[in-house]
Amino acid sequence: MSTRDTPAQIGDLPPIGRPANSALLAAGIGSLAEVAACSRSELLAMHGVGPKAVRILEAALEAQGLRFAD
User: Fold this and answer.
1) Of 66, 69, 70, which is closest to residue 12 (Cα–Cα)?
2) What is the Cα–Cα distance from 48 to 65, expressed in whole angstroms?
3) What is the DSSP string of the chain?
4) How far apart are CA 19 and CA 31, in angstroms?
């Protein structure tokens, strides 16, 4: 899947960019609850997910009273 074919926003995830969205979709992750089941290092190991995307996801998790698995 090309990042051009990836939606700009997935479910309740904040806007983190198409490369990161593509990586999350490829891993079967489409919600904040599913992101919360991952550790920071697991997310950073995904091609397309960088530190900025992880910071944005962390802020969104905290707003929902969630946190990363690590």
Assistant:
1) 66
2) 26
3) --GGGS-S--TT-----HHHHHHHHHTT--SHHHHHTS-HHHHHTSTT--HHHHHHHHHHHHHTT-----
4) 16
Residue 59 structure tokens: 């802020």
What confidence tens digit (pLDDT) does each residue in 34-69 have? 999 999 999 999 999 999 999 999 999 999 999 999
CA 40-7-16 angle, to 5 degrees, is 35
Where exactly are the structural domains of the chain?
Answer: 8-63
Is the sign of the CA dihedral 52, 57, 59, 60 positive or negative? positive
Predicted confidence (pLDDT) per residue in 2-25, tens digit: 556 666 678 899 999 999 999 999
Q: Decide yes or no: CATH 1.10.1240 for domain 8-63.
A: no
